[in-house]
Amino acid sequence: MGDLCAVVLAAGEGQRLRPLTGTVPKALCPVGNVPLLDLALARVAGFGLSGPADVAVNASYLGDQVVAHTGDRAHLSVEPDHPLGTSGGLGNLRDWIGGRGVMVANADAYLAGGDPRRILDGWDGETVRLLGQPVSEHRPGLFSGHRFVGLSLLPWRRVRDLAATPAELVHTVWRPAEADGELDVVPFDGVFFDTGTPRDYLAANLHAAAGGNLVAGTVTGRCVRSVVGDGAIVAGDVTDSVVWPGAVVAAGERLDHVIRAGQQLTVPGR
């Protein structure tokens, strides 16, 4: 893997997840009681990529939290003024990438089942590859009838000229490569949620719970098909919901298909 590195994109503001992301960056929102960033780092580790020589994480919005959480597990690229987007974030890392191909992993992608490692099978280091799921209906944003599921491979020649200015890979790399006949989509047959909305974020958590409960906190009430974070207290009734670490569900409260953060913040998930 000496000619390949990985970049985990964790700088986004998570605007569609507000107010949950008002004080916590999207990359650190937990799914199945594991921060999304940790799931992404584990995903790239499945390709044999780990440590600051081979894995980078970018940070911007509430970046101090991302930096502290990442620690020495990856090279850190801080975008201090505002997020540079998926393309600008890579441009800011060109010196660190240093001639290697790049696996780009979106921190907010939840993948389960299937085998994302297929994206690397037979890759010649010259084409752009996207992991995708087939979509039956026609809609904007697809690639050869597939929706992108948060993992891509980029050759160095497509990265070396990227600027460290706000831009997105769909415009600077993916669509140009597609126009050149140099973009391949590798089908992913597992489960994918982008976790960018409360509905999809809740759905990813319920999938992680697999029809049961994932409890790291204290439950003295009733908990059905829900995820309860570390240090959370559930004294009321919780069904098909997520209770964040340290959050409280008081006796007499009934939560159904929501995300609870803190003592009173309740975000509908449907």
TrEMBL record:
Listed InterPro entries: GlmU-like, NTP_transferase_dom, Nucleotide-diphossugar_trans
Domain Nucleotidyl transferase: 6-81
The protein's name: MurNAc alpha-1-phosphate uridylyltransferase
One of the record's GO molecular function terms: nucleotidyltransferase activity
Entry keywords, A to Z: Nucleotidyltransferase, Transferase
Gene3D superfamilies: Spore Coat Polysaccharide Biosynthesis Protein SpsA, Chain A
Keyword Nucleotidyltransferase set for record: yes
The keyword Transferase belongs to this UniProt entry's keyword annotation: yes
